[in-house]
Amino acid sequence: MPLRPRPEIEKLAPALHGGLNEAELKAMGLSPEEILDFSVCSNPYISPPELGKIIGNIAISRLPDSEATEFREYLAAKLGVSPANIIAGNGSVELIRLIALAYFGRGDTVLILEPTFGEYRVACQITGASVIGQWAGEAADFSHNIKETVDLIKRTRPKGIFICNPNNPTGRYLSREEIKVVLDANPDSLLILDEAYVAFVEKSWPSLDLINRGNLVVVRSMTKDYSIAGLRLGYAIANREIIEMLRRASQPWNVNAVAQKAGIVVLNDSESLKRSQQEIRKAAKFLVREFCRLGFNPRPSETHFFLVKVPNVKEFRTALLRQGLLVRDCASFGLPEYVRIAARTLPECEKLITVIETMKKKGELNTIVG
Predict the structure, then answer these.
(1) Closest by Cα among 90, 217, 222, 91 to 163
(2) Residues 6+ apart with CB under 8 A from 223
C-alpha cells in the first residue's frame, strides 16, 4: 500500500493566482518580456536603483538573520510600534499559513468573507479547520453586510476570521467602525486583517492601534507596495503574545538576506512611494472612465484594481494575451463572468484601452453592460 499524506493534504486544491504562466506563453509563442501584466496588483513604478546594487554587498555564504532584526527595527520606526510587535515573512502567504498553523486545527471553524484571496481557505484546509464562507456577490455590489457578519460570528463562534481589506479581487474597503464591530462580536475569535493593498487606498484609516485588543493580526505585503514580488517579503503586526506564538511556529531563516536588505532600502524611499501612489490613482481613474466609455460597467472599488464583467472571459483574456496584455480571469474567485484589471503606468493603460477598443470595432467582442 502506498504511503498516504494526511487527508487534509490529499484533498487539498491549490489556490490559483494571477501572474505570468510561462508554459502558456511558450505555447503561444510569447516571452515574459513582451507582456504587460494587468493581472497582478503590484506597484508598476517603484524600483529604486539601489536595489540592483545590494546583492553584491550581501554575504550570501552566511545564514540570514533568523529574526530579520534590522528590517523589523526600520519597519517598527516607520509604523510607530515596537519591533516585538512585528514578524517578517517570505511574503504574506507564508504568514497566512503560519497563523493558521499556530492557531487553527481540526474541530475549529474559520469564517472567511468572500469572494476573496484563495489562500485563506487553503491555509485552513491544511490545518483541518472547517471553513464558513459569507458571500457578497454582484447583487450587493460585492459589499458585505457587517450586521449579517456579526450575527454569523455570534451564531457560529469561529476560532478565526479572515478579512481582506481592501478586498482582493473586488477592491471594496471596510471602515474602521465596521472592523471594530467585528472584533467586538467575539473576543475569542482571532481576526486576520489582510491589508496587502491598503497602500493603494486613497483615504485609508489607521488599524495598528487595534492590535492592543489582543485578537487581531494585521498582515501586509511589501511586494505589492514596492514592486519586489520576486524577493517575497511581508510582515504581520499583532500584540507581543501573538507574535511570540508565531515565532515559535515559524521556520528559521524564513526571510532571505537579500529580501531583508531590500526591505530596508525601500522603506528609506518613502517619497517614491508617495509619487507612485498619485500616478497609480490617476491611471486607475483613467481606466475606469475609459471602460465606461466603451460600454462596460466597472464595479465600485476603493483601490487601484477593479472587476469588469466581459463576454466570454476565457476568449477575452486569450485575445488580450495574444496582444501582449494579461488580465486576471476571476473564475477561481467564484466569479466566472469577471476579469480583474489592475492599473499600471498611464501609457500602458492607454495601450490596453486602445487594444480593447480595436477589438470592439472589429466585432471581436460583444460588450456586456453588467
Answers:
(1) 217
(2) 42, 91, 92, 229, 231, 232, 233, 234
CA distances 298 to 150, 196, 199, Å, are: 29, 22, 21
Residue 134 and residue 42 share a domain: no
Q: The CATH number of the domain where 113 resides is what?
A: 3.40.640.10
Distance, in Å, from the CA atom of 162 to the CA atom of 245, rounded to the nearest integer, reads: 18
Asked if 43 and 225 count as a contact pair (C-beta separation under 8 A), the reply is yes
Q: What is the mean pLDDT of each run of 10 residues along the chain (370 residues)?
A: 71 77 84 86 74 69 87 95 97 96 96 97 96 96 96 97 98 98 97 96 96 96 86 95 95 92 87 89 96 94 96 92 95 96 96 94 64
Report yes or no on 366 lying in a domain: no
pTM of the full structure: 0.92
Last residue of a domain, one of 250, 268, 286: 268
CB 182 within 8 A of CB 151: no
Q: Are 191 and 182 in contact (CB under 8 A)?
A: yes
Three-class SS state of 350: helix
Measure Cα distances from 322 to 38, 170, 287, 315 in Å: 14, 26, 20, 11
* Domain that residue 349 falls in: 7-46+271-361
310 in a structural domain: yes
